[in-house]
């Protein structure tokens, strides 16, 4: 089985350079096959061929092969970058790294390395090392505080998935194929035609299909599997809810406050201050508001509307809504701040022209303001996602502690619960790897969409 | 006023009556401020006053403050957080300046590789590797030390790229002129680059201060000793006085803990905004 997996990786490497111009093709295909093979061999080389061992499950086989192919793919991307540089087709690294075109200090060659060394040292010790260790830890049965650990190969991962290898492979493949097919369809049709519209709708559904496929792949529990599907669903609900609340609210309020109105500066300051509030404090404030005995929310619901609101910590929908409200409120200030800055760049002349053409307020907003804001919207989407993935931990820890029955235990909360509170480092690390993959996905999507523009304001 | 309301104004899109906007804005301001105003009210009340839902300032502000600040030594947590925020902010600014200088004003082999090496860390947030990091830093014997909550955070890709981008947009003549004057890289940095970068430094200061001050998950894991704890985690202990659930001291602590970042944010708002705009203009 190992041999056939390696052959498949070599074939993948060869196919990777299938599009090369003819005069260079034989050589590059050969290099591709060799690199694909070698990179795939690194996986069993480091871990041992444990994924294909007799006692491993079929899902283990699938994951192990997937890991080998991923290693090949990463190595092949690097090789292609090197070839692209050699061909001169590369993006200009000079402008990308911000290098000035002339001059530069002529000093000893070690001076720039000296300047960079503190940064590189910290990044190696406190980012790269734990990143690598997260992966190795994820393949082990390791207890917090215990010096020894046992290799469990990919068992920590396969127990998070459904036990059926066909579904594990088929669902994501079908979803990804649908995304590629619909995006090809969209590009093949010309704009403003009916089929282009259809293609756009279909491609939206295809992207949503990826989330459905992931839902189907994560195990609902039972049969010795870990119930990760509920964690996935909870994370999805709270993330989407928080980001949607924060961004729609932020845009609406910024659009109001942006106007040239008396006291505008005062309004703007009074609107953006929650930026400085911590997620912990947001949790505490809403913990107070929603408290079932002392909180004003329950009191007013009872006094004004005669509604007896149940304890939010015992009701899944209310608990999730409370978390979403608290964290949505917390990021509102940040979103208003950036939308206010973005609204400065909306072309006034276009708005005036639209007014003359008799466009309605809503048309002006959707046709001119929204498109002009799309870079900011995109930037905020990424930072809000980061917030909802990680910073939300403190809010949840104060308000619900994951209750009721894990319905507010999002991925990061679950990692700490499993890895620290239960002391099961290996399983926690495996869940961290899943979150890692999600973050890499979001970041790559960001790079691809926004090119090389580097923005800041994120947590790091 | 009536005469001024005709036509499209210079900025913003208001024409016609303004009071609906004032109304909407005041409502927004109040809705956003409500949780904090409510907390300020609770912070002055005793438990009995809270449970009777009185909406006038209570009688317990002084005793709540005494509970928080003196009995539970919240001042110590504030001092710890202040130190942590100071070191992270200063460290990150200095390291980012040096990295930006190296990226823009030097040529060296493998620069593109170093660039990617730093760039890749943008997709490596601490949280996804927190278990391994906890093991690693514990292995250094750094539990309950200031080093554990500062050193891992003083380098970042965001800061380095921010200065890289800012320096790259400066005119080349600056460097040429200074080189003719015989400036070393160090004097070039301190005399030319830093004075031209105050907006960016200010923006980075606000972001980093708020980020560090609000850090919760990592200190909650690595700091177990109460005397070394930071404010965000220390607040958790304030829900309970004398064996009973108490709300007043907790709300007061939440407000006190929010003062330093809010102050930094309000005082530095101008450089923050202009630094942000500079970074956006490419």
What report would you give on this structure?
The complex is a heterodimer of chains A (460) and B (282). With 460 residues, chain A is an all-alpha fold. Chain A folds into 3 domains: 1-92, no CATH class; 164-217; 231-450, Orthogonal Bundle (MetI-like fold). Chain A contains 17 helices and 2 strands. In chain A, strands 1-2 form a two-stranded antiparallel ribbon. In chain A, α11 (279-289) packs across α13 and α16 runs antiparallel to α17 (425-450). The longest helix of chain A has 39 residues, at 361-399. Chain A starts with a helix and ends in a 10-residue tail after the last helix. Chain B has a domain at 75-234 and 258-280: MetI-like fold, CATH 1.10.3720.10. Chain B has helices at residues 19-42, 47-51, 61-71, 74-105, 111-120, 130-139, 146-150, 157-168, 173-180, 185-193, 198-213, 217-222, 231-234, 248-267, 269-280; strands at residues 240-241, 244-245. In chain B, a hairpin with a 2-residue loop joins β1 (240-241) and β2 (244-245). In chain B, α1 packs across α14 (248-267), α4 (74-105) runs antiparallel to α11 (198-213) and α11 packs antiparallel against α14. The two termini of chain B are 39 Å apart. Mean pLDDT of chain B is 86; it is low at 1-13. The interface between A and B is large, with 111 and 114 residues.
Condensed summary:
Chain A has 460 residues and is an all-alpha fold. Chain A is built from 17 helices and two strands.
Apparent shape of chain B: globular
Strand order of the largest sheet of chain B: 1-2
Estimated helix fraction of chain B: 55-70%
User: What is the overall number of helices of chain A?
Assistant: 17
- Name the beta content range of chain A: under 5%
Which second-level CATH architecture of the largest domain in chain A applies? Orthogonal Bundle
CATH superfamily of the domain at 75-234 and 258-280 in chain B: MetI-like
CATH domain class of the largest domain in chain A: Mainly Alpha
Termini separation of chain B: 39 Å
């Amino acid at each position: 089985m190992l041999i056939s997996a390696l052959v498949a990786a070599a074939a993948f490497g060869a196919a990777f350079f299938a599009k090369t111009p003819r005069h260079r093709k034989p050589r590059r295909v050969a290099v591709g096959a060799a690199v694909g093979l070698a990179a795939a061999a690194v996986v069993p080389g480091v871990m041992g061929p444990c994924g294909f061992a007799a006692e491993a499950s079929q899902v283990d086989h699938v994951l192990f092969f997937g890991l080998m192919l991923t290693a090949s793919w990463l190595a092949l991307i690097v090789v292609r970058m090197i070839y692209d540089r050699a061909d001169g087709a590369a993006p200009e690294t000079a402008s990308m790294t911000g290098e000035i075109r002339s001059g530069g200090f002529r000093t000893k060659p070690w001076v720039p390395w000296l300047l960079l060394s503190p940064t590189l040292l910290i990044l190696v010790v406190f980012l790269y090392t734990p990143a690598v260790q997260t992966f190795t830890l994820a393949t082990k049965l390791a207890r917090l505080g215990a010096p020894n650990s046992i290799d469990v190969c990919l068992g920590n991962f396969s127990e998070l998935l459904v036990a059926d290898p066909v579904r594990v492979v088929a669902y994501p493949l079908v979803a990804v194929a649908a995304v590629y097919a619909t995006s090809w369809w969209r590009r093949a049709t010309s704009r403003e035609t009916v089929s282009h519209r259809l293609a756009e709708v279909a491609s939206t559904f295809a992207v949503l299909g990826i989330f459905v496929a992931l839902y189907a792949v994560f195990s609902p529990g039972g049969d010795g599997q870990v119930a990760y599907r509920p964690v996935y669903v909870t994370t999805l609900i709270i993330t989407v809810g928080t980001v949607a609340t924060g961004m729609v609210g932020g845009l609406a309020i910024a659009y109001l406050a942006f106007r040239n109105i008396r006291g505008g500066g005062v309004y703007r300051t009074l609107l953006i201050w929650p930026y400085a509030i911590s997620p912990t404090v947001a949790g505490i404030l809403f913990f107070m508001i929603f408290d079932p005995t002392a909180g004003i929310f329950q009191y007013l619901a009872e006094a004004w509307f005669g509604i007896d609101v149940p304890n939010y910590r015992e009701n899944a929908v209310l608990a999730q809504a409370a978390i979403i409200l608290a964290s949505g409120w917390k990021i509102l200030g940040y979103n208003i701040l950036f939308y206010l800055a973005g609204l400065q760049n909306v072309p006034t002349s276009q708005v005036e022209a639209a007014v003359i053409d008799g466009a309605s307020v809503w048309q002006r907003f959707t046709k001119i303001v929204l498109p002009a804001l799309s870079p900011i919207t995109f930037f905020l989407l990424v930072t809000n996602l980061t917030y909802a993935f990680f910073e939300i931990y403190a809010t949840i820890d104060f308000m619900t502690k994951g209750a009721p029955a894990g319905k507010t235990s999002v991925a990061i909360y679950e990692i700490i619960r499993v890895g620290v509170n239960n002391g099961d480092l290996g399983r926690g690390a495996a869940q961290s790897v899943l979150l890692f993959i999600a973050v890499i996905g979001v970041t790559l999507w960001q790079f691809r969409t926004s090119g090389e523009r580097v923005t800041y304001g994120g947590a790091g | 006023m009536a005469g001024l309301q005709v036509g499209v104004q210079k900025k913003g899109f208001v024409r016609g009556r303004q009071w609906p906007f004032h109304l909407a804005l005041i409502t927004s301001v109040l809705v956003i401020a409500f949780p904090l105003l409510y907390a300020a009210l609770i912070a002055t009340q005793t438990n009995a006053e809270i449970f009777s839902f009185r909406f006038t300032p209570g009688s317990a502000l002084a005793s709540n403050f005494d509970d928080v600040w003196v009995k539970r030594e919240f001042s110590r947590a504030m001092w710890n957080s202040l130190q942590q925020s100071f070191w992270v902010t200063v460290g990150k600014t200095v390291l980012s300046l040096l990295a930006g200088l190296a990226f823009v004003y030097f040529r060296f082999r493998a620069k593109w590789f170093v660039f990617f090496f730093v760039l890749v860390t943008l997709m490596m947030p601490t949280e996804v590797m927190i278990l391994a990091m906890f093991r690693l830093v514990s292995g250094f014997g750094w539990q309950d030390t200031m080093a554990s909550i500062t050193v891992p955070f003083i380098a970042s890709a965001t800061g380095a790229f921010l200065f890289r981008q800012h320096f790259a947009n400066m005119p080349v003549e600056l460097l040429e002129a200074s080189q003719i004057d015989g400036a070393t890289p160090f004097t070039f940095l301190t005399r030319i680059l830093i004075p031209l970068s105050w907006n960016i430094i200010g923006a980075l200061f606000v972001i980093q201060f708020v980020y560090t001050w609000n850090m919760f998950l990592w200190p909650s894991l690595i700091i177990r000793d109460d005397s070394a704890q930071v404010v965000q985690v220390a607040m958790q202990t304030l829900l309970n006085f004398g064996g009973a659930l108490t709300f007043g001291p907790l709300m007061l602590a939440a407000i006190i803990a929010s003062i330093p970042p809010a102050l930094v944010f309000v005082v530095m708002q101008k450089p923050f905004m202009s630094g942000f705009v500079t970074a956006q203009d490419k």
